[in-house]
Specification:
heterodimer; A: 498 residues; alpha+beta; Cytochrome-c3 Hydrogenase, chain B; four-stranded mixed sheet; 16 helices; 39% helix; 17% strand; B: 266 residues; alpha/beta; Rossmann fold; five-stranded parallel sheet
């Protein structure tokens, strides 16, 4: 185990101040979750910093309906407390805005409380228009979504604008809330990984890895090195595909028809290569508890030649794209997120790294195959959409490099044998954390098991964490910048809606 | 200027499907097939009924010795293939779409239900007015995000759906065909209904993915409805988790009666 984990339990009254004190500029809040227990509800704050994860917990007796809010001291806790309010009916006293986020219940309807053992009848959300928060002459509200123009996931952006500037955007993600946390409860660990793959399907491999890492940490299973490397191989292909998706959306919004067409074709080639390797275009079935589903389905030579051709074409097209003024002009200065803001929020992935943060858990808390591979996390200072694009570009080249290392290593090991692909996993009881760096940023899994059955599983996607920053991304931007800012965040709504 | 030469650099990369089968379709796992539904296999290790219980979406049924996989519920995780490769296998045939969920079973029901021909005739009559210009509107009702990628892929130069006279449109008022993804999240049922109602007649609906067909792993949860067929009338179901762009394209063509004769016979 490379990362140590320390836990402290405190009284509810000092929960917020303890977290704020522990953050102290060196840690970030990585999540705030609820674990129901027999007599109490346990609140778990996960803090990340350096090579460490820390947890601070507090127990609320059943029947408690409120606790002092963390958000007032730690802004990054905002969405977590709103989510807890929706799913567990517990109020964070002093929270600035407890609007429903993932599940707007009708008044009087019971909260689903995943993991509590309660049977939950089908719930019908109440969808009322939001009251305008910004008022003034000529200001109006554009509810954009949930059905938007184009093939997009469902989300509503409530844009308050006098016509061009965007003083405020609110995000409503609850339309596609699927109740994923409840879906885990009572499942076997083998079923759990299938759910993890579908929490945020475009980051299937990262989610399955985060989930399995948690199990393997609890069971103290050593994953065979070959399997660790294959996980890296698929995770990096997934990163390339996602970054190409985000880049192609930029080109589409900028009206770069040829670039869009070229990039979507290259992305398709990556997806096909993934399917050739494992039978699934999204890497489904690759990561299983204890290892991987099996060896790659195509040979090294065939893979290398296909990947090499894609990399060559991509480098050529990116060279041209990143010198095309009509493209760069739309990204430069768009959606600026200043460093103090992303630091306070603990922003993840390219959104954080585009504004000067350097956190990449493949580097800071390396897991699996990344412990054996050299990697540096690219970072940029400007904080605009262009900086995020630069970070993604460099990550694409770093991913190609990592894949090259992995393939050489796998090739030199040679041989086969099923024992190399998955280690037996003795499932136990207990609570555990796992993580992985998805293309969107850090994925975190909190699992609680009893005799191999999931009592509670809390997936936390980077999309959920980062989408909370979206409202702050329009300081000087106008409505026509919207598509660029959205694409530069590169998030999945499924991962945010739960 | 440099982009102009870049645009023609690689020549034509577009698939000929459905006019000709596309070789690529054979390299991924589109569905689960049942190899030998005979009685002889029953009882060997592990017993088939235990494999059926282990199926995470209860897609396997055994009735009087006949093994069947309900592809509408199946999420192609391949657990059954790992446990009993003598019975189950991955199927690379991308043409998995059907008009009704009861037809999504493998092995195929040999005798076509009598009312299916009437259903198909009715659909063809409805879409005839659309001719060869079809506009699509997509609505996400709780997908995992992968179906959106695969639908969007249809506009890339490899699938180039426009070559078939099929276009995506922003407004439901211009749309002839509704593509619905996701397990039917309660929050989207209202917007789905309103989108459907905003479409002019004649209109057809295609459910994309096993989640949209039967709810997948999220069936029975508090926030989903086990697929979207309870909410609006669906004309074609495309199973898969997610279905590949080819499978989605096949489903769209099946819905608008544009499949070449050979494919339509299946």
């Amino acid at each position: 185990m490379t990362a140590q984990q320390t836990t402290a339990e405190v009284a509810a009254e000092i929960f917020a101040t303890e977290i704020a004190a522990a953050l102290n500029g060196e840690h970030r809040l990585a999540g705030l979750f609820v674990v129901p227990e027999a007599e109490t509800l346990r609140l778990v704050a996960v803090l990340a910093g350096g090579r460490q994860l820390r947890t601070i917990t507090t127990r609320l007796p059943h029947g408690t309906s409120a606790y002092p809010s963390v958000t007032a001291l730690v802004p990054g806790a905002d969405w977590y407390e709103r989510e807890i309010h929706d799913l567990y009916g517990i109020e964070a006293t002093g929270h600035p805005d407890l609007d429903p986020l993932v599940l707007p219940l009708r008044s009087g309807a019971p909260a689903p409380r995943p993991g509590s053992g309660d049977a939950v009848p089908p719930l019908t959300p109440s969808i009322d228009p939001l009251p305008a928060l910004v008022t003034g002459e000529g200001l109006f509200t554009i509810p954009y979504g949930p059905v938007r123009s184009g093939v997009f996931e469902s989300i509503e952006y409530v844009v308050e604008t006098p016509g061009e500037d965007i003083p405020r955007v609110r995000t409503r993600v609850h339309y596609k809330h699927r109740g994923v946390e409840a879906a885990f409860v009572g499942r076997s660990v083998e079923d759990g990984v299938l759910l993890a793959e579908r929490i945020e399907g475009v980051a299937t491999v990262a989610h399955a890895t985060g989930y399995c890492e948690a199990l393997e940490r609890l069971a103290e299973t050593e994953v065979p090195i070959g399997a660790q490397l294959i996980r890296v191989l698929h995770a990096e292909l997934e990163r390339i595909a996602n970054h190409l998706d985000s880049t192609s959306r930029h080109t589409e919004a900028a009206g770069q028809a040829v670039a869009y067409s070229r990039l979507t074709r290259h992305k398709e080639r990556i997806m096909r290569l993934r399917a050739q390797l494992c039978g699934s275009r999204f890497g489904r079935g690759v990561v299983v508890p204890g290892g991987v589903g099996g060896p790659p389905l195509i040979g090294v030579a065939e893979f290398q030649s296909a990947l090499g051709a894609i990399e060559r074409d991509l480098r050529m097209d990116f060279r041209l794209l990143m010198t095309t003024p009509s493209f760069l002009d739309r990204l430069r200065g768009t959606g600026v997120l200043p460093l103090p803001l992303v630091t306070a929020h603990g922003a993840l992935g390219p959104v954080g790294r585009g504004s000067g943060l350097e956190e990449d858990v493949r580097v800071s808390r390396p897991y699996g195959g990344y412990r054996h591979l050299g990697l540096a996390a690219p970072s940029r200072q400007a904080g605009d959409a262009l900086a995020r694009q630069h970070v993604r570009n460099e990550e694409i080249w770093a991913s190609f490099h990592l894949i090259g290392q992995v393939v050489d290593e796998l090739d030199s090991r040679g041989g086969s044998g099923s024992d190399r692909w998955a280690a037996p996993l003795e499932v136990q009881s207990g609570e555990t954390l796992g993580w992985a760096e998805a293309p969107q940023g850090e994925v975190l899994y909190l699992l609680s098991l009893e005799n191999g059955v999931l009592l509670r599983a809390k997936p936390r996607s980077a999309s959920f964490h980062n989408l909370g920053l979206f409202t702050a991304a329009f300081p000087k931007d106008i409505t026509t910048d919207f598509a660029f800012i959205e694409a530069s965040f590169g998030l999945s709504i499924a991962g945010a809606a739960g | 200027m440099p982009w102009i030469t870049r645009g023609v650099r690689d020549g034509v990369v577009t698939s000929h499907y459905p006019r000709r089968p596309d070789g690529y379709g054979a390299t991924f796992r589109a569905a689960i097939a049942v190899r030998s539904p005979g009685r002889d296999a029953l009882g060997s290790d592990p017993p088939l009924d235990s494999v059926a219980v282990l199926c995470p979406t209860r897609a396997i049924s055994i009735e009087s010795g006949e093994v069947r996989v309900d592809r509408g519920r199946c999420i192609t995780c391949g657990r059954c293939v790992n446990l009993r490769p003598d019975i189950f296998a991955f199927d690379a045939d991308i043409e998995v779409a059907e008009h009704r969920t009861d037809l999504l079973v493998a092995p195929e029901i040999r005798e076509e239900p009598a009312d299916l021909a009437a259903l198909r005739d009715d659909l063809i009559r409805r879409v005839r007015a659309l001719r060869r210009s079809i506009h699509i509107r997509h609505v996400d009702c709780g997908s995992d995000g992968t179906e959106e990628w695969e639908i969007a892929a249809l506009t890339n130069p490899v699938y180039d759906i426009q070559r078939l006279g099929v276009f995506f449109t922003a407004s439901p008022r211009h749309a002839d065909l509704l593509l619905v993804t996701g397990a039917g999240s309660s929050g989207m049922l209202g917007p789905l209904q309103r989108t459907y109602e905003a479409m002019p007649a004649p209109k057809v609906v295609v459910a994309v993915g096993s989640d949209a067909t039967a709810g997948g792993l999220f069936a029975g949860g508090y926030a989903t409805r086990g697929g979207i067929a309870h909410e609006i009338a669906v004309d074609v179901f495309v199973p898969g988790s997610p279905p590949s762009p080819f499978s989605i394209l096949h489903g769209i063509l099946l819905a608008i009666g544009l499949l070449p004769a050979r494919s339509a016979e299946r």
